[in-house]
Amino acid sequence: MGERLEHGSAGDSWAGVNTDALARAAREQSQRVVPGAADMESYLAAQVSDASHREVVGPLLDGGPPSGVVLRRGAVIAAWGDPARVEMAFSATKSVLALTAGPAYDDGLLRLDEPVHRSVDLPQFAGSHGRVITWRHLLDQTSQWEGELWGKPTSLDAQSAREGTESPGGPPGEGWAYNDVRVNLAALALTVLLGRPLPEMLRSRIAEPIGASPRWS
Questions:
Q1: N or C: lower Cβ tally within 10 Å for the chain?
Q2: How far apart are CA 4 and CA 49, in angstroms?
Q3: Helices (H), strands (E): how many in the chain?
Q4: Per-residue model confidence (pLDDT) at position 39
Q5: Are residues 116 and 189 in contact, defined by beta-carbon separation less than 8 angstroms?
Q6: How far is CA 1 from CA 74, 80, 148, in A?
Q7: CA torsion sign, 152 to 155 to 160 to 166?
Q8: Is the pLDDT of residue 163 over 50?
Q9: Of 139, 141, 143, 142, which Cα lies nearest the Cα of 101?
């Protein structure tokens, strides 16, 4: 299925839209195939340089052809592929954690500059380094926590080794790193703090109030 513009009766959704540029952008996006994503297991294995940790924890869903929509003022004005197809989303975890942390902050459960160990009982925050980590450190990715979570060590994430991103072994707050294992630690801590699965919090406090589709997982 190719790209398409959907004029319909979208009211002023089209006001000021450059239809030629929109059509060109939709066409270009419809042709942006991700090589190898049709076999997600092999695709992800190729992204990991450490041969000892190639296995993925959790379910996988093979990718399909490019798809997407452009929404403006409440109306879909362009679409390509099959937007209704369920796909895996990447680089979304940090945004989801921020969204679920928001209601926890509003409810007074989460205090940004309070050490995490004061509100959750987890061994990762029991040592001398862990007891200094605050919620802000977790959410800012500056905790510099070192360890293993669900069989995955923090050293596995090669992005943490980029020059200038962090000083290994330094105190919390003095180094930044894009580290998925530490992000998972933030997710675990939030789950314990809330006492419920994060998807439930996201659904009830964020997704349903804004009218999001209920079909995500």
A1: C
A2: 39
A3: 6, 5
A4: 94
A5: yes
A6: 23, 7, 44
A7: positive
A8: no
A9: 139
